[in-house]
Design goal:
The chain is α/β, with parallel strands linked by helices. Helices cover 40% and strands 11% of the residues. The protein is built from 19 helices and 14 strands. The protein has a six-stranded parallel sheet with strand order 2-3-4-5-6-7. A six-stranded mixed sheet has the order 9-14-13-12-10-11, with helices on one face. The longest helix has 17 residues. The radius of gyration is 23 Å and the shape is globular.
């Protein structure tokens, strides 16, 4: 049963209700359980909170023992951004791979199976899918997290993903409104800006969000981006013009609005998290996401007190805070235990449990794009895998393994590997490889001049090098065989390894 501590007034409860904090560890700390009793209604999970599915199920059960209607949120996009499988790599390809296949039924099925696994672990709100149109190939933070550069394609797959995920009883949180695709700055580090006119924004950025709303997305996440054509003064997360006038009134959305992480520098460095949280709720946000970096009781207390003070001083209307808390509770009601749906339970898909479990690998295989396969002879001897490794963006993180080496070891025992970066990466990889056949693995070659140069060095010295591009395949295909996987999930590596080994 939900418990509310005696003496916790309505205003304070509402202030706690709109917070979605994170916490350290694989069990819930005492302070978090206490806050749940005082009115906190949501928590956010990250890779640090997850060891195994069984442990995660125990953790969510521990949370629900304190508050049975708690929203347990996670950033599980599949593909490159995985928390459920943070230490092994995802069993599901990400959006870019699904967009490359362009089969909306497959996207729905992948999302439904991902949702089923989340629901089994007690997670009921997923900060996904990314509905950003990747119109800027130099985008440092979206890339393969997007279904692609075409608004219509992104729209239909966003709708399918929302439908599939929610069929399992897991609420979708479509992000990053009003669209983060045409940016060249990572909002984790600074404030990005999109200088597009309203007509372009309506046709490009907003199309996938219209589709998500039509599909019934239960939540939408705001972006920490400045869009002068919509609001020249404030980023979307803090803009009433964007969250209330555009999203609520013009697009007709009435579900939960969640902020992106408030400790991200795009907001925190300019407004601070306390002031930023007040402005976000005043602008129309209903839930404040915090906890990726700040994950402690002091953060929760500061944000709670900032919201309470803002109401008492007249800066934040009490009714606005109450409406935000109401939407959080309504979503909690929608995700109540016992919700089932045909697709989410495997009914109506025409697949057995075993095939459903393999749907991620099936999708990854279909997403491969091969250049040179007509003359390629599969490897029979263990190669040297040279991973030309860029710095991971904050959303992806550096905890999750990627590449093809681990999968090739299983198919070609004795495979060796090394990671290389910088100006001398190509020459260093040649030395390390010795006489072995080289498999060069790259990620967004078009964004990293050093990587393109290193790959050139490898191909000049060893023209029979196999190239695996695990980012956005923007650079021209090179190598004896070029495999574009459209993402770096574990299953993408497996699919590429199968081709290299002829399996």
């Amino acid at each position: 049963m939900t418990t509310i501590a005696s003496g916790t007034d309505t205003l304070t409860r509402d202030a706690l209700t709109v917070l979605q904090p994170g916490f350290p560890g694989t069990t819930a700390p005492d302070w978090l359980l206490r806050r749940l009793g005082e009115g906190l209604a949501s928590v956010g999970l990250f890779g640090r909170n997850i060891a195994t599915p069984e442990q995660l199920a125990s953790l969510t059960a521990q949370l629900r023992a304190e508050r049975d209607d708690v929203l347990v949120a996670i950033d599980e996009e599949g593909g490159d951004v995985t928390r459920l499988e943070v230490r092994t790599g995802s069993s599901f390809p990400g959006n870019h791979a699904l967009g490359a296949v362009d089969d909306v039924a497959l996207t729905l099925e992948v999302a439904a199976e991902l949702g089923r696994r989340l629901a089994e672990c007690g997670v009921n709100l997923n900060w996904a899918p990314s509905a950003d149109v990747n119109s800027n190939p130099a985008n440092p933070v979206i890339g393969v997290r997007s279904f692609g550069p075409d608004p219509a394609l992104v729209a239909r797959h966003t709708a399918a993903y929302v439908t599939g995920l929610q069929s399992a009883g897991v609420a979708a949180c479509t992000k990053h409104f009003p669209g983060h695709g045409d940016t060249a700055v990572d909002s984790h580090h600074a404030l990005p800006r999109i200088d597009a006119d309203p007509a372009v924004l309506a046709e490009r950025e907003l199309a996938p969000f219209r589709a998500a709303i039509a599909a019934g997305t239960r939540a939408v996440m705001s972006a920490h981006i400045l869009v002068p054509a919509l609001d020249p003064a404030r980023p979307a997360t803090l803009s009433r013009r964007i969250l209330t006038t555009l999203l609520r009134e013009e697009l007709g959305y009435d579900g939960l609005i969640v902020t992106d992480g408030m400790e991200m520098q795009a907001v925190a460095a300019t407004y601070g998290i306390e002031r930023g949280s007040v402005l976000a709720v005043a602008a129309g946000a209903d839930a404040i996401c915090v906890g990726g970096g700040l994950a402690d009781d002091e953060t929760v207390r500061k944000l709670r007190d900032a919201l309470v003070t803002a109401v008492r001083t007249g800066e934040l209307p009490e009714q606005r805070l109450a409406d935000a808390a109401r939407r959080v509770r309504e979503l909690a009601g929608w995700t109540a235990p016992g919700r089932t749906a045909a697709v989410g339970t495997g009914e109506g898909t025409g697949r057995t449990d075993g095939v459903r479990a393999e749907v991620g690998l099936i999708a990854a295989r279909r997403a491969l794009r091969l250049t040179g396969e007509d003359v390629f002879t599969p490897l029979t001897e263990p190669p040297f895998v040279a991973a030309l490794t860029p710095v991971a963006n904050f959303a992806v993180g550096d905890e999750t393994p990627w590449g093809v080496a681990a999968e090739l070891v299983q198919l070609l025992p004795g495979t060796r590997t090394g990671s290389f970066s910088g100006a001398d990466a190509g020459q260093a990889a040649l030395v390390a490889a010795g006489e072995r056949r080289i498999v060069a693995v790259v990620r967004d070659e078009h964004r990293h001049p050093w990587m393109a140069s290193a790959l050139g060095d490898l191909l000049t010295a060893r023209p029979d090098t196999v190239v695996v591009e695990m980012g956005v395949p923007q650079a021209p295909p090179r190598g004896a065989l070029h495999i574009a996987t459209h993402g770096a999930a574990r299953v993408c590596g497996r699919a590429a390894a199968e081709v290299i080994a002829g399996r």
